[in-house]
Design a protein that fits this description.
Blueprint: H1 2-6, H2 13-21, H3 27-34, H4 38-46, H5 48-59, H6 63-66, H7 76-96, H8 110-125, H9 129-138, H10 141-160, H11 183-203, H12 205-212, H13 221-226, H14 231-254, H15 282-294, H16 300-310, H17 323-330
């Protein structure tokens, strides 16, 4: 190849581009080829956008519809980031569908949960809290259900998964008696689990994977470098910002104990800088939006469980979601419109 490129009559750029588009894509491959000759370096730079489209069309045909809000340049870095997102989703789906998972995703819901993770990426991609709220309120029911179902499976995996100790592990709350957990323990667990879902909507799926994965799987080095190793602290920060502050306001109004000593409960003591009061959690808005569209007269805390119940049957309207259906849901539309 090098001798041909250095010849007085080098290969035409069209032939080189066609050949390059058939190579397995990676940024490492692109960098290596660009160092082979000045001609290759120039071609890779000049035709970056068209080459990226060729790589996508041949190797990742759904990437543009799967990540519709991340089209920053459509270059090699963008495509590499999308591949990283796909790898993250694959790792999470492996954990959610594992035979060791007490609440493993059933077969008929696997495409729907996968779709929910893609929609979650859309929400997390937005930088502002207001932007996330606006997107959630603009989505139709089906993509909202997909996100809630995906988040609930992540929460249940964090609660019950074996061989992993986190702030959400069931062993931290289960009372070793016939009475089981009392009200305050259930309330605390629910608040922390809501913190996990809120952090996922804010930080994305890398955060979820960093929280769920126990390090037992072989993972790529790029993911290892980028994983969120302080995920437990992040959940406690969300808990501090949203749950503790609200409880402090109520306690001040009634001269009560912020730690709930009246009912024998005990809340974790958190401390952090004084910041502005947080607006409504994106996760709460998501749950309330689903309840509103479904016509459910229930609190936000009951919505996720009801969605799980609705999706248990293997013939619900989103079961075995097709690729066409996935594309519609990720774009924010209903699937039933074309059925």
């Amino acid at each position: 190849m090098r001798s041909l490129l250095n010849d007085s009559k080098p290969l035409p750029p069209e032939l080189i581009l066609t050949t390059l588009s058939y190579l397995p894509f990676s940024c490492y491959t692109i960098r290596t080829i660009s160092l082979a000759s000045p001609l290759l370096h120039s071609i890779l730079q000049t035709y970056e956008t068209s080459l990226t489209k060729d790589f996508s069309r041949r190797q990742l045909p759904h990437v543009y519809s799967d990540f519709p809000d991340s089209h920053s340049g459509h270059g090699y870095t963008w495509l590499s980031t999308c591949i990283h997102h796909y790898n993250t989703i694959d790792h999470i789906m492996g954990l959610l569908t594992s035979p060791r998972n007490t609440y493993a995703v059933p077969f008929h819901n696997m495409p729907l949960v996968n779709c929910g993770l893609l929609v979650l990426y859309r929400i997390a991609f937005l930088e502002t809290h207001e932007g996330k709220i606006e997107l959630v309120t603009s989505l139709s029911l089906d993509p909202l259900v997909a996100v809630v179902l995906a988040l609930q499976h992540c929460v249940l995996t964090a609660r019950y998964q074996a061989g992993r100790t986190t702030v959400l592990s069931q062993s931290n709350y289960a009372v070793r008696s016939r009475a089981g957990m009392d009200y305050s323990q259930r309330a605390l667990r629910n608040e922390l689990e809501a913190g996990l879902a809120e952090a996922a909507l804010d930080r994305g799926l890398e955060f979820i994977l960093g929280f769920l994965d126990d390090g037992s799987k072989t993972i790529d080095q790029d993911w290892t470098r980028n994983r969120d190793r302080d995920s437990g602290a992040v959940v406690l920060n969300v808990y501090h910002d949203h749950s503790v502050r609200v409880r402090e306001d109520v306690a001040l109004q009634h001269n009560g104990d912020v730690n709930g000593a009246e009912d024998g409960g005990s809340q974790p003591i958190t401390q952090g800088p004084v910041r502005e009061r947080k607006e409504a959690m994106v996760y709460t808005v998501l749950l309330e939006r689903v309840a509103e569209i479904m016509g459910w007269s229930c609190g936000a805390g009951e919505v996720a469980d009801r969605v799980m119940e609705e999706m248990e049957v293997d013939d619900h309207w989103l079961a075995r979601l097709s690729l066409v259906g996935k594309g519609r849901l990720v774009s924010g539309r209903e699937w039933c419109e074309v059925q």
